[in-house]
Amino acid sequence: MDFFRAARYWFSMGVVRRPDSAEERALRYLAEVYGSGIYLPWVNRLLAGFGILGCLAAFIFLANGLCSLYFAPAALSPYWLDMMALGMLIGVFLPIGVMVFGKWQKTISQRRLGAVRRIFGNLDRAADVADGLRNQYPNASDTPTTWAFPIHPDYAAFEVGKPFLYAYAAIALSSLYVAHTASRFGETLFLAFCLYFVPVVFHGVLTAFGGWNQKRQELMAYPVSVFLRDIRMLEKQSKLVKINLALDSRENSATCKP
Fold first, then answer.
1. Diameter of the chain by CA atoms?
2. What stretches pass through the bilayer (predicted)?
């Protein structure tokens, strides 16, 4: 359900202005960490449009290939298949290329720590803002699903959601029964695996180019969820660093004793 809640946030019209509010500061953090870094709104909208069309083309292309394995003939003609493949390549790889050669040259950890210092001053103040938002938005979760927000807190590009893994395991077993041949079974798994990542890339493009804006309160649970998850993860890392420093100081003091 997080996928649809995120989609409602991205595609809802209207922007609410509350300067210096906790929501505004959280959105500034998200824009600095996950945004494209491009300050021309029309360029962001253009790249977001390319990404959305590319994801739609990828979904149609892959779904057609999956259906053609079991139902002949394929729904799309070779001409339209070529058009879908071209749209998929341009729409998906153009936004990703912009991010790879732009904002992604700095790691997510660097962007997170820099944004916390610039916007909140330090992690303790950011945690206070997160606590206030957690009380204000009780329906906001600290763990948005992969299809709603694809960036893993431990710096991986994508994370795998366990419920979706179980669903794909069921699809794999059923396709093995229906496919009858190993080659068809392998093609089914490959196409299904690619289809899994279409919603992930869809929201990844919107995360980078969609624009983190303040909207109606019922829609704000999605960005608040992402912000809460990041701050919770940074607090855990900070505690681990303090524990390691304390252990190192004990070891050093023990070795210095005569």
1. 84
2. 46-71, 83-102, 165-183, 189-212
* 161-203 residue pLDDT tens: 555 556 656 666 666 666 667 777 777 777 877 787 788 888 8
8 A C-beta contact, residue 52 and residue 249 = no
Count of CA atoms in the C-beta half-sphere (13 A) of 94? 19
Helix axis angle, 22-34 to 108-119, nearest 10°: 150
pLDDT at 160: 46
Q: Which long-range contacts (CB under 8 A, 24 or more apart) does 150-157 make?
A: 150/200, 150/201, 150/203, 150/204, 150/207, 151/34, 151/108, 151/204, 151/207, 153/229, 153/230, 153/233, 154/233, 155/107, 155/108, 155/109
By CB neighbour count within 10 A (0-12 exposed, 13-18 middle, 19+ buried), where does 155 fall? exposed
Helices 108-119, 123-136: inter-axial angle, 10-degree rounding = 90
Question: What are the extents of the domains in the chain?
Answer: 19-158+199-256
- Mean pLDDT throughout 116-131? 91
